[in-house]
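Next up, sample data:
>
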Amino acid sequence: MTDGAGAGRLSTQTRLGLFYVVSYLGTGVSLPFIATYFRSRGLSGAEIGLILAVPMLARPFTGPVLAVWADGFALRRTPLALLALGAAAGYLALPVAPGFWGLLACWLVGMTCLTTLTPLIDVLTLRRSRLDGFNYGLPRGAGSAAFIVANLAMGAILAVMAPSVIVAWITTAAVGVAVISALVLPADRVHEAGAPQLGSAERWKGLGGLLRDRTFVLAVVTAGLIQGTHAFYYGFSALLWRKEGISAPMIGVLWGVGVAVEVGFMWFAEPWRRKVGPEKLLVLGGAAALLRWSAYAFMPPLWLLFPLQALHALTFAASFMASLRLIERLAPPQSASAAQAINSALSAGFVLGVGTLAAGPLFDAFGPRGYLAMAAMGGLGLIGAVMLTKRAGR
């Protein structure tokens, strides 16, 4: 695969930004709306929850395996294109999938391929941002902005079209990601020029070395705990706010505030982030999670929700960016993909999946007090972040 003539005139930052934009145009629809499609297929709430949770719970296994596989290619963009096509195939099969088990299998294939794209593109973007001197948060933040656009657009579309349009949208986005991967992304090599291409056995050995590194494991677990605190919020914030009397449009505004501060943090806080360092950013993320979810447990008034939503810049964006930088620093170059895959599999996969499974029973038993379990996770993440700071001597 070679760069197209048009792509050759684009800056590396723009090429990477296009990837994030098209990818998050799909995620901005699949994350909030796929349950609507599954409900239209006659599934119960429990069945929908299980379908959504299974790919997340499988990520600690599927993520590293696919990352090791991806490192066997010459160019980083090749497995990105193949995984995007795999995601499109899984989504395309959803309308003809027979019942619960068929839908589960298709969603598992689609989401496993799609979520593996994130750590792989992050490795490429982090490397090029370091070499070319641009802010990683700019292309990544463009993706978050696209998420908002897709969310609002699909909300309007569903007012006049059937839920089947959700599958058509996310399939088209996945195909778009494959095209951009193949024709637009820079032709960066997996292995540096002159470095030998490692065989499968050597790549698995490198993965084992990462898991024996206590600091690496502590960093991954810490980031996973802080990111996992969002599970109850993702699943039940809208229901709780409606119960409190907050209108649906205002709930959309509150969600928009969270994503907007995330984008702003990624675009404009780069000099400050570098000065503070990833360990202290994780401390801030853990402390903010402890504060934010403790406050949500007591159903604060609408005016207070806005500054609490602004803490998303720390609970999500700061901890996410910190984990990327910290994992990049701790992992050797030949294990970069596997390291980021492990980080992503735990933070956006297993811990979030367990939290999602626990959120339903917590909601049924305790209502808004279920947020206290998320606050406790944030407290554990804060302890881990303090330990990392002490190890780094910061």
